[in-house]
Amino acid sequence: MTNVRTPGIDGIDLDPPGSVGTRVAFFVLWGIDMVAATLFFVVPYATELNPVTVRFYELFGLPGVPLAAICYAGAVVAIGHLLSDPIDRRFVGAVVFAYLVFATNNVVLLLSGRSPLGV
């Protein structure tokens, strides 16, 4: 199955990366990870390790964390848009797997105070 091209702004064709299910999984896991990363700055027992997110937090405060997450999502969508099918599906699938690991680790850390990955 190929991606459906949709006419975009000024005649630019939009070619969303991956399948609809993969994109939904990406945005759900991305959202969970974004909330968890934001909570890392308000709980005393968890630390955000991503230096870009930490820098955005230092510059903009708590709103900087979702802003950093939005930048990450934008980068993933842009890269997926540039890749051809089926490589775009593989790329977004790999990102979904990474976010699955990150989100699971972060949620367990927030709920139990201990990281299952030992990070």
Structure summary:
The protein has 119 residues and is mainly α. It has helices at 20-40, 51-60, 64-82, 87-112; strands spanning 6-7, 13-14. It has one domain (15-112).
List keywords for this structure.
single chain, 119 residues
Protein structure class: mainly alpha
User: Span between N and C termini?
Assistant: 39 Å
| Total beta strands | 2
Strand order of the largest sheet: 1-2
Computed over alpha carbons, the radius of gyration is 16 Å
Principal-axis shape: globular
H/I helix tally: 4
Q: How is the main sheet built?
A: 2 strands, antiparallel
Mean pLDDT across all amino acids: 83
Low-confidence stretches: none
Protein name: DUF5658 domain-containing protein
Transmembrane segments: 24-47, 59-79, 91-111
Keywords: Membrane, Transmembrane, Transmembrane helix
Write the layout of secondary structure elements.
Blueprint (H helix, E strand, L loop, with lengths): L5 E2 L5 E2 L5 H21 L10 H10 L3 H19 L4 H26 L7
Helix pairs in contact: 1-3, 1-4, 2-3, 3-4
Organism: Natronococcus jeotgali DSM 18795
Protein name: DUF5658 domain-containing protein
Keywords: Membrane, Transmembrane, Transmembrane helix
